[in-house]
């Protein structure tokens, strides 16, 4: 049984009280909280807050869970909420959840509350805690990492939106025996949020990049080099941009917007796909809009990317594949210092009118000589 009050430094977790109602209503009626907590009433009114305090939270406790108000330890004012639900005693398992009021975000409150809840739950005898997080909620995933939770996989269609549609949820898990401190990051954040040589800049792909990226990936010559040679829809590209930070945080891929450093406009994209963590190997890919080609931007981007991959990421090998007919991309590989290893026969899915195409295989090791400087 978890205690009614948990002291956690600058914050305190305690039972809800009637005088929390105003702060509770204001915090829960925030668009971000309503989007990622679709079981909350919308709009969230003072009546809803009072009902939660008098009926909802006590029902959670009676069911074997926990429902805490997160308050500022100095003022005792409510700044969020957190608790445990879906408790399965036979498995020593529960689901952990939290939310923070808009004015109290970016102060480490969710991380402190999650760490305190996890410690308390494990002391009470639980062995496994889950955080189920929407892929488009990277802020919550950063809290999970900071609190020592590790990405475990995808719960397909586990979430339900207000309109009745379903969406996947990412499972982040912490076990009682996990080491203390934050969970390891296979793909660290970029130093200063970007890589640049003052000609090309790479930064993480973001939702505002969707329209330019769609223009790039709907071009026939770019479609022809996709793993499945089918043009994406606008929704596909918007989704890719929306979950790019999540893919980075879970260690699956680092998806970059490739910018012309002089203008700050998107000139293309590149990505590192961490396909073999066990062997320290990853794949890279890149593409440019027509107006950005022929200026050496792709070569510069690949060099920036490889420096980060062999430096902060600590990879042992990078590889890439180019179409046999894509002479421009092969020149990029050569100028970036990659070695041509051979031909992967019939590697990619077949086009509607052709067989399975071959792919030229390229690789780069951190011990390979640096290529000549670019002019």
TrEMBL record:
GO terms for cellular component: cytoplasm. The keyword Transferase applies. Transmembrane segments: none annotated. InterPro entries: Acyl_CoA_acyltransferase, GNAT_dom, Ribosomal_N-acetyltransferase. One of its GO terms (molecular function) is protein-N-terminal-alanine acetyltransferase activity. Residues 11-176, 200-366 form the N-acetyltransferase domain. The keyword NAD does not apply. Pfam families: Acetyltransf_3. It comes from the Bacteria. SUPFAM superfamilies: Acyl-CoA N-acyltransferases (Nat) (SSF55729). Keywords: Transferase. This is Protein N-acetyltransferase, RimJ/RimL family. It comes from Micromonospora rifamycinica. The lineage of its organism: Bacteria, Bacillati, Actinomycetota, Actinomycetes, Micromonosporales.
